[in-house]
Each structure stands twice: as structure tokens, then as C-alpha cells.
From TrEMBL:
Keyword vocabulary terms for this entry: Membrane, Transmembrane, Transmembrane helix
Domain of life of the source: Bacteria
Species for this entry: Exiguobacterium undae
Keyword Transmembrane helix tagged: yes
Name the UniProt record assigns to this protein: Uncharacterized protein
Transmembrane regions: 20-37, 43-60, 81-103, 109-127
Amino acid sequence: MNKQERIQIIQTIRKQIKPVRVVSACFAAIGFLILFLTNQPMWSTFPIVFALILFGVSSRKECLEICRITNMKQAKQWIQLRYVTSFVLISIAMTLFVIPHVADVSDLHILYWYLASSVIIIMTVVVETNLDHRVRQADPEQPLSNEYR
């Protein structure tokens, strides 16, 4: 299977997963609205955790489908590592963003929590890019994630 055919398959997979990702984003938005607009920040954790669960399920499905289109074992391992790493880092970033509000941290310390969360988000982009290139080395016909987004 050539690269263009793989891109078409991945885009079809992403179209199927898109509704779940939209629902996940909506729950995350609801959670962050509750976090910032109410005096009950603890209630924000439920929609945010649910959003992360939905995101994790959709990422797993996407990862498994993308792994099926390559025959290279090493490429499959790099693809799986990319998805797992991204999910873990995004979960940590969102947790670091929520903790100071739930734990009632002072305003000065909230800045440090936000900074740590931002650094982890930047790390996610760097790690994903690095792992994408390793996938390409393992299977030259496998498209990079920026080629099918």
C-alpha cells in the first residue's frame, strides 16, 4: 500500500472518530467553565475526567487502525508509543491545570502550575514530532501525522 492510499484510510478513520473527539472537547470545555465560573471547582473534575476517557478511547481506536495499515513491527511500536505518550502528557497537563483550583492554591502559585502545564503541552508537540520521524524511519511509506491532518 502506498503513502497516498494510507493517507486516505487514515482520513477515513479520523472522520469516524471525529464525533467522539467533539463530544470529548465539549465535556472538557464544560469542565473548564465549571472550574472558572463557579465556586465548586471539584465538580469540574467529573466532566474533565470523562473527556479524558473519551479522548483515550478514541485515540486507542485510531492508533489500532493506523497500526493495521503498516506491516513493519518497529513502525507499529513507534505509533503505539506516540499515542500513549501523547495521551499521558495531555492528561498530566490537564491535571496540572485543574489541581490548583481544586486544592485552593494561592494566586502566585497558580502561575507556576499553569507554567508547568504549558511546558508539558510543548513537550507533547516535541515528543510527537520526534516519534513521528521514527515511524517514518521504520516505514518510509507511513505518512507523518501532519500529512493527514
